[in-house]
Amino acid sequence: MNTMVFDIETVPDVELGRRLYPLMELDDQDVAKAMFFRRLQESGTEFLQHYQHRIVAISIVLRTGQELKVLSLGERDSDEATLIDQFFKGIRKYIPELVSWNGGGFDLPVLHYRALLHGIQAPQYWEMGDENRSFRYNNYLNRFHWRHIDVMDALSGFQPRAKAGLDAIAVMLGFPGKMGLGGDKVWDCYLDGKIDEIRNYCETDVLNTYLVFLRFQHMRGLLDDMELESEMNLLRDLLSGAEEPHLQQFLAAWGEGGAGIAA
User: 67 with 79: CB under 8 angstroms?
Assistant: First the structure.
């Protein structure tokens, strides 16, 4: 089966914020501040509800046959609708095993709301067995099926108190972990027009997710020791041949990680 590991980066949907509250007279930065403050009052956290996030980057690691790619969808100036449409077209084309870290709790619900907003169709993703009977027993939507593997959920046994961040688990396994930005800095970076930095950060996140996923597959017995090492080496070769500085930095940081099966 093809595998598509994915991650998204988001910013506040300030246009929605203006209409919801209303805040028509404020600039983007002040609208976002108002949205964060209102959310803090409501819930004790500034983290906005899923539908109030606007997607500015989607990065994937795509493993098909003997090919491995890491990329960000669209171009630096692509609008949100284009990014989401390409994501779901990729699912339709490859019918992949989707892999994420907290994708069930964040990335996919955001994608649902934003696809709804833009009128994007994704019949393959929403298939539940009506057109393809195999999806009745293994689909992208059922939490306990394997067509979408939220590695964080699986490792925590779906127990909220056992969940851990990607950065911590990646570092534990000798992988680079977070590089450059942090999720809480994406909005400031976006305001500064640094969309390339956001896309690069998203790619390093999805690389960490892929590496943790490989270890998870090894733990499940779906990769033996030699197969795991082969997959790791395939990724090393991909990164070694990449010209992008952030990918070279990721490879260098990986080389500095811990010893053992992860290194």
Answer: no
Domains, the chain, in order of start with CATH, read: 3-255 (3.30.420.10)
Helix (H, G, I), strand (E, B) or coil at 114: helix
Evaluate whether 94 touches 225 at the Cβ level (below 8 Å).
Answer: no
Phi, psi of 252 (to 5 degrees): -65, -45
Of 185 and 94, the one with more pLDDT: 94
Cα-atom radius of gyration of the chain, to the nearest Å? 19
Condensed to tens digits (0 to 9), the pLDDT of residues 145-182 reads: 999 999 999 999 999 999 999 999 999 999 999 987 77
User: What is the predicted pLDDT for the residue at 259?
Assistant: 42
Half-sphere exposure for 191 (CA within 13 Å, toward CB): 14
10 residue type, one letter: T
Collapse the DSSP code of 181 into the 3-class scheme (helix H, G, I; strand E, B; otherwise coil) and give the result. Answer: coil
Strands of the chain, DSSP E: 3-12, 53-64, 67-72, 97-100, 148-150
By the 10 Å C-beta count (0-12 exposed, 13-18 middle, 19+ buried), 38 is classed as: middle
What type of residue sits at position 91?
I
The strand pairing partners of 64, in sequence order, are: 67
- Both tokens of 41, joined, read 């009052």
**What letter does residue 241 receive in the DSSP assignment?**
T
